[in-house]
Amino acid sequence: MSATAARDIAPAPISAHERPSPLTRSRVRAAWAFVAPTLFVLALIAGWPLARTIWFSLTDANLNNLSDYAFIGFENYLVHDNGEWLGLLVDPEWWRSVWNTVWFTLVSVSIETVLGIVVALMLNAAFPGRGIMRAIILIPWAIPTVVSAKMWNWMLHDQFGVINDMLLRLGLIASPIIWTANPDTALWAVVMVDVWKATPFMALLILAALQMLPQDIYEAARVDGIHPVRVFFRVTLPLIRPALLVAVIFRALDALRVFDLIYVLTANSRDTMSMSAYARQQLVDFQEVGFGSAASTLIFLIIALLVVITIVVGRVRLSEDAQ
Amino acid sequence: MADVALKGVQKSFGSTKVIHGVDLEIRDGEFVVFVGPSGCGKSTLLRLIAGLEGITAGELCIDCERVNDLPPAKRGIAMVFQSYALYPHMNVYDNMAFGLELAKASKAEIDRRVRETARLLQIDALLDRKPRQLSGGQRQRVAIGRAIVREPKVFLFDEPLSNLDAALRVQTRIEIAKLHSDMKATMIYVTHDQVEAMTLADRIVVLNAGRIEQVGTPLELYHHPANLFVARFIGSPQMNLIQAEVTQTSPEGVQVRLPNGSTVITAVTSECIQRGESVTLGIRPDHVTVGRTGIVTGRIVLVEELGENHLLYTDTDDGTRLTARAPGDAKYEIGDAISLEFSGKFCHLFKSSGEALAPSQI
């Protein structure tokens, strides 16, 4: 999105031999004057911590004494020592947390996208009480994650949880399930709570896109007798795809950074540990600032890579449409 | 191709009644234009025929079949929308073919129909373009093409030209007229532009506040408006209207006295009018001429120079606004004193109820 905006406000390209007119130069100056405060703040709150993290990842810093550290190059990432490879890149715990995070992101964002579309389509239809419904549906999103995670923690509790109670009464399970501790169900439990929480956000973004759609084409489709399901797949879905892509990127970024939900629901369980939880464990629990910073840097690179891929793929497909 | 019949058709939105019982017979192959001011219900009436809105009461028949409860797709109609309603992400070909894909037509048949229609409308070079790469006129052609490929019994046009610029509007108007004469299809066309109505229609339906004011050929409406509303609505510039009083009735006509005291004998039947009754006299600007010893005198307040002739807007001495059409070579200026005259045989008389008096038979 920001790339598009930048392209829109950028002055027309000027050929080398042509001097920009005084008007163009004053507009460029004004543009820089407006952008400079943002750049400054960004450099301060994003650039500096990022640079520091990357720097620490190349050191053996420890939380005990942050002023005393030595530059060790890429040893936190990978080092050959006494005939075996050590470092983050060969740590199975790390790769397990990467896999957990990617799996969690793929599954939860997919479910949220499908459910979000369904909910948005429902809210887009005219029915009495629609305004109230729109407000109600946002409640899960409005609750702080820690609170909703704690709430679900109780609902999923193996002895006192309402979910086990209901399933037992319905006869669907024979004995209570330890949802958040059982390796088979723990990550699914996390996905379920995330879906519960984030679907309203998806639905809201998609609803906004749906409401931008021209109504006349739907009347044209009705006159032409095209089946509503076909209209959805051939007309609605292609038209909301750009907005859908933005929503998916937003959610995927959130999901890739997931920490609080998993931390509250399943503590430091290895079965559900995410990349962020891994980095936090190294940084805080083990006080390995250098190693934790290396993990954080890798998280940054992985997320950046995935976003770039998504945007490039999205733009290629969008520009196909434009032809 | 089919005829369309409306019998006592009514439409309410909640408790608001917008169509108050419309009776209308549209013959097979006829070009009928619904015309009226904004909010008169003309678009609603068209949407009722299309099936985009449900009919509250009454009966709608297309091709002698009652279609009240049929969905739009089963009524054998095709509609062209004011906003074109093209699918923005599909190219011209797909826009035209999309509605056919379910209509039990084979791929080859669809292809043939789309290309043939595109040739007819001269958009065959644009088939790969997206709507946003087209001009307004081209989009309108695609929208019309999309209607044609469906080979409907009845074409419905909802203000199809109102988003085009003036020159293109005239050109497209001519093309629609030609299309109608080539296809011999039944067409129902909604517009608020009386010039479009006059030039395109076999018959015009003038609507006002959900009721039909008059149905007739363009010239019937122009020469014999049934009431004040139609008289005001049809014709540009508007018909001049002067308050008058009946002073004498005779088989030849009705004599009325104008506010300034002069009298005119109008060629209308005196059967349902009495002396002393107050009436409205209507005279078209084309029939008002500048004379030496005119019926009314006044001062020019505005001159519109159109080239081939001038429109003179005049305030008469008694305060009535009169418009006259004068030759384009005449020199007039604002503030000039002027004397206007007109012949009684071109005058219309409207009773205080708004109803027009029929022309006398002489």
UniProtKB/TrEMBL annotation, chain B:
Q: Which keywords accompany this UniProt record?
A: ATP-binding, Nucleotide-binding, Transport
The record's annotation in InterPro entries points to: AAA+_ATPase (IPR003593), ABC_transporter-like_ATP-bd (IPR003439), ABC_transporter-like_CS (IPR017871), ABC_transpr_MalK-like (IPR015855), ABC_transpr_MalK/UgpC-like (IPR047641), Mo/tungstate-bd_C_term_dom (IPR008995), NA-bd_OB-fold (IPR012340), P-loop_NTPase (IPR027417)
* CDD domains recorded: ABC_MalK_N (cd03301)
Going by the entry's taxonomy, the superkingdom of the source organism is recorded as Bacteria
User: Cross-referenced Pfam families, in alphabetical order?
Assistant: ABC_tran, TOBE_2
Q: Does the keyword Transport apply?
A: yes
Q: Which GO terms describe its molecular function?
A: ABC-type maltose transporter activity; ATP binding; ATP hydrolysis activity
Task: Give any Gene Ontology cellular component.
Answer: maltose transport complex
The UniProt entry lists membrane topology as:
Peripheral membrane protein
Q: What is this protein called?
A: sn-glycerol-3-phosphate ABC transporter ATP-binding protein UgpC
Q: Which gene encodes it?
A: ugpC
